[in-house]
Write a structure and sequence with these properties.
By secondary structure, this protein is mostly beta strands. It folds into 3 domains: 3-43, no CATH class; 59-198 and 210-220, Homing Intron 3 (I-Ppo) Encoded Endonuclease, Chain A (Alpha-Beta Complex); 238-284, no CATH class. It is built from 3 helices and 22 strands. It has helices at 3-9, 145-153, 183-193; strands spanning 16-18, 24-27, 33-36, 67-69, 75-78, 83-85, 105-106, 110-112, 123-131, 137-144, 162-165, 178-181, 199-201, 209-213, 216-219, 222-223, 230-231, 238-240, 252-254, 265-267, 273-277, 280-284. It has a 4-stranded antiparallel β-sheet with strand order 4-5-6-7, covered by helices on one side. A 3-stranded antiparallel β-sheet has the order 1-2-3, with no helix packed on it. Strand 1 (16-18) and strand 2 (24-27) form a beta hairpin. The chain is flat, with a radius of gyration of 38 Å.
Length: 291
C-alpha cells in the first residue's frame, strides 16, 4: 500500500487538501483526488483588456473624374493605369503608403510574365485582397493593371475576354492604348513583339515547335538523338480510312510515306494493316484463321 492510498483512506468525500506547492485537491466520490482550479483573482495575473473597437478616422473617399471604382470592393483604378485602395486599420502608421487627397492609398505594382523574355515583355499587376464582415482576410486575386483599366473604362459589347495593347507598348496602360479583342488577335500581336530566337509551341505542349527568325515563325525540325539527323515531317499529309470500317470513317491520320506506290501494305505499331489504294491508305480487315 502506497502512502497516497493510505492518506486517501483516512479522508472523507469532499475533503480539501492544500499541498506544499499551493495547489488544492478534493477527495472525489471514488476516493480519487480532484484538482481544484484556483480562482483567477488569486493568480496575481493582469486581466487582458478588451480589444478596442477600431474607428475609421481617415478622410472620406472623394473620387475625381479620372478615377473610378473597380468591380472589386474598396479598389479603384485611374484611366491611365494607377491603382488605389481604401485605407484599413493596418495603415494607421503609414507602412503601406500615405493617404492622399482623395482618401486613397496608391498601390505599388509588380511585374508579371515570363522573365525569360526580359522585363520589357512583362506586365504590371497588383494583388487584390478580400475580407469578411469582421475584417479578416479570406483570400486574394492577382490582376494586371491593363485588365482593370479595360474592365472599368472601356466598353465591351462583344464580350471579349482579352485585352490588347496598342502602338505604345505593353507598359502603357492608358485606356486609349487598350482595346478588347479575341485570343487569336492577342496571340498574333504578341508574337510580333517577342524577341528573335523565341521558341513556342502552337498547339499545346505537344504541338509543333516553332522559332522566330527574321520576324517569321519557322518550324523547328525534330532530331533523332541516335543519328543526329532531322526526322521528316508529314505536316498536312492526311488520308481517310476505307468505307469498310464505318466507325472510323472520315478520321484522318498522318501518312507514314506519301510517296509509297499503289498497293503498298503498311503495318502500324498497334498491329493494324493498311493498303494504299487510289492514293489513300485503306484499313485492311484482320482475317483470323479458323473463323
Amino acid at each position: 500500500m502506497t502512502k497516497s492510498k493510505g492518506i486517501r483512506k483516512n479522508r472523507k468525500v469532499g475533503d480539501i487538501v492544500i499541498r506544499k506547492n499551493g495547489t488544492m485537491w478534493e477527495v472525489g466520490p471514488d476516493k480519487k483526488w480532484i484538482y481544484m482550479k484556483k480562482p483567477r483573482e488569486e493568480w496575481n495575473m493582469p486581466i487582458a483588456k478588451p480589444k478596442e473597437e477600431w474607428v475609421n478616422n481617415y478622410p472620406p473617399v472623394t473620387l475625381p473624374d479620372h478615377i473610378r471604382p473597380t468591380k472589386y470592393p474598396h479598389y479603384y483604378i485611374s484611366n491611365d493605369g494607377v491603382a488605389y485602395r481604401e485605407p484599413r486599420r493596418c495603415d494607421s502608421k503609414g507602412r503601406f503608403g500615405e493617404v492622399n487627397e482623395y482618401g486613397l492609398i496608391q498601390l505599388t505594382v509588380s511585374l508579371r510574365g515570363n522573365p525569360n523574355y526580359g522585363e520589357e515583355y512583362m506586365y504590371e499587376g497588383i494583388n487584390i485582397y478580400f475580407y469578411d464582415e469582421n475584417g479578416k482576410n479570406i483570400g486574394f486575386k492577382k490582376r494586371n493593371i491593363h485588365q482593370l483599366v479595360a474592365e472599368t473604362w472601356i466598353p465591351n459589347p462583344h464580350g471579349y475576354k482579352e485585352v490588347l495593347h496598342g502602338e505604345k507598348g505593353n507598359r502603357c496602360n492608358h485606356y486609349t492604348n487598350l482595346r478588347w479583342g479575341t485570343h487569336k488577335e492577342n496571340m498574333e500581336e504578341a508574337s510580333h513583339t517577342l524577341p528573335e530566337g523565341t521558341r513556342r509551341r502552337m498547339k499545346g505542349n505537344k504541338g509543333s515547335l516553332y522559332e522566330k527568325k527574321d520576324g517569321e515563325w519557322v518550324l523547328v525540325p525534330k532530331v533523332d538523338k541516335k543519328t543526329g539527323k532531322n526526322i521528316p515531317w508529314n505536316k498536312g499529309k492526311t488520308y481517310t480510312l476505307g468505307s469498310d470500317h464505318a466507325w472510323n470513317k472520315g478520321k484522318k491520320y498522318s501518312l507514314p510515306d506519301q510517296q509509297s506506290p499503289e498497293g503498298t501494305i503498311s503495318i502500324r505499331k498497334n498491329g493494324t494493316t493498311y493498303k494504299k489504294i487510289d492514293g489513300e491508305w485503306v484499313y485492311q480487315k484482320r482475317v483470323d484463321k479458323g473463323i
